[in-house]
Amino acid sequence: MYRKSFILRLLNPVANCSVLLVWLSLLALPFAALASVEITLVWDANNEPELAGYRVYCREDAQDYDYDNPSWEGAETTCTISELDETTHYYLVVRAFDTSNNESGNSNEVSYQGEYGYQDAEGADVDAGGGCFIAALNEKREKGVTSCIVH
Taking the CA of residue 74 as centre, how many other CA atoms within 13 Å lie in the half-sphere pointing to its CB? Predict the structure, then answer.
């Protein structure tokens, strides 16, 4: 009985496809993990006396920032945004907020263009190897993002 059941399962194409899909899914897991990146940002501290913390906002190319849903919030001047697709173009900004929940304007913008390299504010290629580009501070801002590390 066991032998007959085993042979019937071997001959059943639907069952074989299901088993094959499960095995392929398990084999793909390590490769899926390789396709994500983390971006660590470091910025200058805000010296406001009623400072409560910072919020980091992340958007993809051709999208707007969703200021109702920060990607990170905390009191530190560094954060890591995880599980980003290495082939997607991302932009990130930091905002300070106070104890009354008033929020500052955006810091200088950080751009990550994944495996396709990154570009400066004018769209010129800076490096074809991927990484972060930190926009220069304008004359109105003395503080902003100072470091971006991709890992």
Answer: 11
Using N-to-C axis directions, what is the helix angle for 2-11 and 13-34, rounded to 10°? 70
Give the integer Cα–Cα distance in Å for 75 and 52: 7
Q: CA 112 from chain center: how many Å?
A: 9
Q: What does the radius of gyration of the chain's CA atoms come to, in whole angstroms?
A: 23
- Measured between alpha carbons, how far is 48 from 130 in angstroms, rounded to an integer? 35
Taking the chain (151 residues) in consecutive chunks of 10 residues, what is each chunk's mean pLDDT?
51 46 43 68 90 95 95 95 89 93 90 62 47 61 67 63
The CA distance from 80 to 109, in Å, is 16
Instruction: Write out the CATH class of domain 36-150.
Output: mainly beta
Compute CA 96 distance to the chain's CA centroid, rounded to the nearest angstrom.
20
Please indicate, yes or no, whether the overall pTM of this predicted structure exceeds 0.90: no
